[in-house]
Design brief:
By secondary structure, the protein is mainly alpha-helical. It contains 13 helices and 5 strands. The structure holds adenosine monophosphate and tryptophan. Tryptophan (TRP) is lined by residues 15-19, 51, 54, 141, 144-145, 153, 155, 159, 162.
Length: 343
Amino acid sequence: MTDAANTYSGPQRILSGMQPTGQLHLGNYLGALVNWVALQERGAECFYCIVDLHAITMPHDPKALPDAVRSAAAAYMAAGVDPSRSAVFAQSAVPAHAELAWIFQCVARLGWLERMTQFKDKTGKDAERASVGIFTYPVLQAADILVYKATHVPVGEDQKQHLELARDIAARFMREFDCEGAFPLPEPVIQGPGARIMSLRDGTKKMSKSDESDASRINLVDDADTIARKIKKAKTDPEPLPETAEGLQNRPEAANLAGIYAALAGTSLETVLTEFGGKGFGVFKPALADLAVAKLAPISAEYRRLTGDPAEIDRILQRGAERARAVAAPVIAEAKKIVGFWG
Ligand code: AMP
Ligand code: TRP
């Protein structure tokens, strides 16, 4: 990890993104979107993109991709992202991401990328057959962030290593080309009990879009009955909830459900355990289901309303892309000049 000092003095800017693959789930919402909205509400300048360039690092259906982008944009907005304040756009609509990614590929070191755990997780033993894009994926992510000189990046805990890489790339670029202060060293915003939501079927596995079992996750668009059923069936242990957080050690499923309750209620784990400590899951699960339905029902209703008007989503994505391109243009021009490109 870089130990370079942050000498950047530009304005605070927020950037984050998600892949347009599969339905967004409770982990995406509590780990990332809740913080996206909180930063927007604090008045920060926010850029929220749908990373379709990243989506093609894995096999995908070209016919389904545009609608998947619209669907992700609708989910962002249903969760509270306001497109009149935050730029909502598709990554592929701003070519500067790919241009800066190339420059950064020549700055990042092979060894840095070889250490990325997400690459290892995604490709397993089959790394030789993986696309080169999946290997350089985190370099493109660094470009996504730095092409706006974003200072803060709200993400779930699984993205921590990619953010460290983005800092390393920024620091090395500035050292190599003697341009200290040209880029910020972007800071991850990973906070709250929702930073790492686990599968409902296995408390040691991350809740994920790619899990074959739909029962492992709560999708933002699940209806009330489905949410209640998934929570009722969620794996637990036979003990009642403990009174303190230490009591959750070695109880991954109990810790996960209590954490989900805390994140949904916008409170701490301790507060949840003060209320439910000593009570069994027969009491806790229905309370959690009620809370989840109350919080998610308006989101899924709004999502359905928004996806009913794809032309409006396209207008929003166009406007978002225009704003994003305007901010990225001077940054990519500066980076090209720094590395000595002609013109
Ligand atoms: P992905 O679904 O991998 O495209 O992730 C999009 C965003 O959601 C990233 O900021 C992730 O860190 C976050 N995220 C994904 N899964 C989880 C999870 N199980 N818990 C918390 N955050 C998550
Ligand atoms: N890699 C992120 C994920 O899988 C998605 C992403 C792409 C991203 N570019 C980004 C997140 C830039 C934050 C900032 O979740």
